[in-house]
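=== RUN LOG ===
request id: a7f3
mode: sequence -> structure
chains: 1
length: 689
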Amino acid sequence: MHNCLPLARVAALSACLLAIGAAAQERTLDPVVVSASRVEQRVFDTPAAVNRVDLDWRNSNVLGISVAEPLAGVPGMAVRDRQNFSQDVQLSIRGFGSRATFGVRGSRILVDGIPASMPDGQGQASTINLASAQHVEVLRGPWAQMYGNAGGGVLLVESRRAPDTPTASLRLAAGSLDFTQMMASGGMRINPALGLQAAAEGFSTDGVRAHSAARRRYLDLRADWQTDAATSVRVGINGFSQPQAQDPMGLTQAEFERDPGMTNPLAFQFDTGKTVDQYQLGVQAERRITARDRLSLTAYAGNRTLTQFLGFSGVAPTSSGGVVDLDRNYFGTGIGWQRQPDSGDRIPLRWSAGAEIEAMRDKRRGFVNNNGSEGALRRDEDNDATSYGAYGQLGAYVRPDVQLLAGARYSDVRFKVDDHFITAASPNDSGSVSYSQFSPVLGVLWSASESLNVFANAGRGFETPTFTEIAYRPGGTGVNFGLQPARSRHFETGAKMQRDALALEAALFYSMTDDDIVPLSNQGGRATFGNVDGVRRYGLELGARTGWRSIDWSLAYTLLYASFTQGFVNADGRQVNAGNQLPATARHTFQLEATWRPSQDTSVGAVLHAESRIYANDINSEAAPGYFTLGLNAGRTFRVGRTQTRLFVRVDNLFDRSYSGSVIVNEANRRYYEPAAGRTFVAGVVIGL
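=== RESULT ===
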């Protein structure tokens, strides 16, 4: 189908439902608190576009294998499950990161204050353990620049704290595509000052297509220690292991239309896929200096090893090989100071300041892919990246109903390559480059009434290339040190209303990026990148939550115009016209979710998701059609003493729609399309104490 579900009709129906909720006003929504602005406050009072999504697999019917599912209902976000565990989900905010060919790009990820994004800007959503996560906050727009090296926004994941009384939960689930899952968590207090929390997760699946099987395992161990009345320390050890993640690769349009379940023959020939192991130790400490001042310290270190087989041999002397072998050590530390206003202040001030250092060292090697086995060496180098950042932000109430805000961050990111593989065909590619930027942000918040807040913000953004993006030089060998950082200007204005059982939010946003980092070509996993000026993104975000009788409704809608304002010639020598839409960005994204709770222990839910078409390449010659899907879920809890057992079942893509869940942007052989799953079923049981 070439057109998305008639969004106007769906939006009109949703508006009617929300109006009913507003008129009923039978319940009051619980206040939602966030800390994305580096100061803990209600979402309603935060002077920026921010959402909080709770992640409780123990009492909900979520699938729980990817952050993609809970974030799909956040305005401004596009989360596409590629059904390819070798490449991670495609996650973008306001169009930033939509064309990433690997991991998460354009958005910064932090888990319990510790970056899951590396100093070069590349993040891994796959390392987030949903068995231990309590909620995730999504900060969009100019104020996200206070976290550094991210164009679109920030994801802040918070894990559960140790409970006051011992708890334990176990979940077992199975379903279509030979899917099996185990999730477990538990916690207890050793004494009033020390609590322990543990969480484990594992799943396996045969995948949507042949050669797309995957297995993953997670383990989190955390200790919360209240050393005295003013000081708390959290220590976390976590591990992530992916012993199998086959890559079925993309399909051409003809292949996708003929048989979306087929697999690229090269995937079998070269045994494409990835194995990953990652382990990390992190420490957070917080000291309340006064009733108004709080000092925080974070330190962490970790190791990540990866082996990836790409869809080509890489046998040429000038090639970097078709097998990637990576051994990464990373570490960092940060310090922050926060002050809350006092009711006795003549001009109430809220401010925070801090500094951060992050570093990683990659031992990166490349080998010939001899039809699925490791061959001769083609690459051997050390890649170092170091990021230094300092920030400060201030909010002052110049009137009881008006708050002015100002912030700034200085970022300095340095890259260094030491090449140890030097031949006549592969000269010495050693070198270094550094990028820096001062990013100011200004804003204002007007409390028009007790139930209505209006805000406006403006700022500058900064996004460096990643090591993966500078790995290959277009049209030649060696590292692409000529790739420049993307520099953007952001503007937004919005309003939030909260009254009884109704919460509404709306935001208009605009950004213009120079030297935007775009994929020029992508062949068999070997991607080359370049810079393009004048990339514009603007649009509208709408969100709503309401409760009416025993039904909870939520709605999210994003209108996004993302385009090139200047023409250019791509790596294939083809003209990209001004006005072309950015690949992998949908003009319309819509989600409506309803959950009926006829009793405390029973829930029945439905999720309607729709997106308009997305182009697969810069020249806009091919596109994945728009689509809509409907998912249903139901759960029932049974209680016997302190033990409760929850049974749940869910069906996704109820109407068995055939559609491309994501695209591989600018794939050189026009194998752009990654088919989504058809109708799938999952059932499970959760036992809790």
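=== NOTES ===
The first strand starts at residue 33 and ends at 34.
The longest helix spans residues 7-24.
=== END ===
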